Amino acid sequence: MMDWLVPRPGQKLIDVAGGTGDIATRFLDRCKGDAECSIVDFNREMISLGKKKTEEYPFKQNLDWFCADAMNLPFSDEIFHSYTISFGLRNVTNIQIALSEAFRVLRPGGRIMILEFSTLIDKNLQWLYDKYSFQIIPLLGKMIANEKDSYQYLVESIRNFPRQNELVEIMNSAGFREVKYRNLSMGIVALHSGWKM
To answer: What would the pLDDT profile of 97-156 be if each residue is shown by its tens digit?
Structure first.
């Protein structure tokens, strides 16, 4: 994500569903600390975890934390250079509203990057992956974490998420241009990029 995003010093990033701080710290590392990162998460516990995780981080003064909804961001229009969301968009109840909010808070020339589980490019591999996902992952969740329902939700949310080309269309309808994607791990995960022109 960072290689494609190419963070530059002086930029402002909003990382949504970013409670662990992983994306924001990588962004700051690329800018050698000369950037501002606003981390937004709907879950207060994730924010607490992220703050604890970054207590010794050298650029922690450049991290701001917000407990907020991706569909109702607490920021003015057009203030961020970059918007990232990793493995969070599929948990939003209305993707179109969340992307419209992303578009609103980005400056003209700003960029959105979405990292999310997706659909394998090989139909046979997708069939095998679905069998593994729906039959094995929930059982492992039950055995290891005693959380079968959470892992069942995980695989169902992945399968219900729009396919790569469908997400391109949704991003276009939210106003983004030059929307492209790259498949990672043969499409298990996809990275989408778009620009506010």
So the answer is: 999 999 999 999 999 999 999 988 888 777 777 766 777 766 777 778 788 777 677 778
Q: In the chain, what is the straight-line distance between the N-terminal and C-terminal CA atoms, in Å?
A: 21
What is the average pLDDT score of the chain? 92
The CA distance from 46 to 173, in Å, is 31
Where in 31-149 does DSSP place strands (E)?
35-41, 63-67, 80-86, 106-117
What are the helix and strand counts (H, E) for the chain? 8, 7
User: What are the tens digits of pLDDT across the range 185-197?
Assistant: 999 899 999 999 9
Chain mean position to CA 171: 14
Cα angle vertex 77, ends 73, 42, to 5°? 10
